[in-house]
Amino acid sequence: MTQHFDLLVRGGTVFDGTGAPGRLADVGVLGDRIAAIGDLAGATADTVVEAAGRAVAPGFIDVHTHDDRALLSNPDMAMKTSQGVTTVVVGNCGVSLSPLAIDRRPPPPLDLLGAEEWYRYPRMADYMAAVDAAPAAVNAACLVGHATLRVGAMDDLLRPATPAEINNMKERLAEGLAAGAIGMSTGLFYRPANAAPTEEIIALAELLEPAGAIYTTHMRDEGEGVMDSLHESFRIGREAGVRAIISHHKVIGTPNFGRSEETLALIEHTRTRQDIGLDCYPYVAASTVLDSSRLERCSRVMVTWSVKHPEVSGRDLSDIAAEWGISQLEAVDRLNPAGAIYFMMDEADVRRILSYPHTIVASDGLPHDSHPHPRLWGTFPRVLGHYSRDVGLFPLEEAVRRMTGLPAERFGLTGRGRLAVGAHADITVFDPATVIDSASFEKPATPAAGIDRVIVNGRAVWADGAPTGAHPGRLLRRQDLQAA
Fold first, then answer.
1. Which residues form the Amidohydrolase domain (predicted)?
2. What CATH number should be reported for the domain holding residue 16?
């Protein structure tokens, strides 16, 4: 009997997400699941994608995003689907859109997600219901942000939380976990959370282990104190009994160039003793809110947005200050609230961290910046085309694993990140010979080359160089993932 599928991806080289070499095979999809992989000659389908000469991979998983609001305000999610991403994890760096409702401008870095009108979800269940009601093109899993908890519980963020405030945060974190959040994130570098002692984080993280949830962290210090911050992060995971993920691992500032040898040695030593992980993005520049404390560590600073002076977005801070006839420190004060790109890492460290076999590829893109860091549009094709194909850091099958099977396993995203019979039909078809990032620091919102078709839950969301308009993404709740 002739097999018939809803969708048939025919004649491509399948990279299944495990790190195994590619093999010629067809992929048949029924509904939202992969129904067959192999030689499906003679099979028919409602839609056939001819993939000869193309790589067929699981949809890429971006575990470090700030897409909480973008899922609602920009549901096509073209900045992600255009580079092959089918699932995002939101709520990173201690910043989540919920659980929080406020009537004033949120403090940096919470304002990276939007002004007070976007902080209108007092419970995680409220935010998830909003995403359910208006699905996006991609799937999403949620972290509860520690800074968000602090802003909702405290009248003064520049001190440790009191026992009563910690209890308030515990109650709201527990609600988020009950609603389906996969874990909690911290951003201990940032002002709203920097005064929190390690014990405050452990007290909250203790709620994660019974739920089978994870802990992710933008560490307290990625410069001179990077080793102490790694030890603190591992202590939190160890004492709370949870997996600890180091977000966007890097070493910043010229005096620290080369120290990734030291940090990776500690990570490898610790990995054999407790459950940890890490992600990174493939660029020598970081991006976040505009902060004068970072200036001395940077060779260049580019302004990405400014509430008071939106006309300077995309320009170097040094040029703005010179034009205004003031110092760069004075320019920062005049521009804030604002965001920036900071050139502060060494290429050798970026390559070393990317080459470490347990490093997940993730973007840390900021979707609401007027002139965003190019990682928002270019991270995954940059690794596939530049670092894997052109530089040769690792073979294509390993690059795919870092974007699919590895993040799915580390973040508990069951049924995603693999091409296997029964798995969800999240599929990216790309040309391994031409795939490359097109986004630059000068023109950051530029779709990548070589991404042919992106499929989420069996439906195409990116094809022929544009969004299809389909929004088949789903909110991935932890309880459902654990039961799968």
1. 48-193, 321-461
2. 2.30.40.10
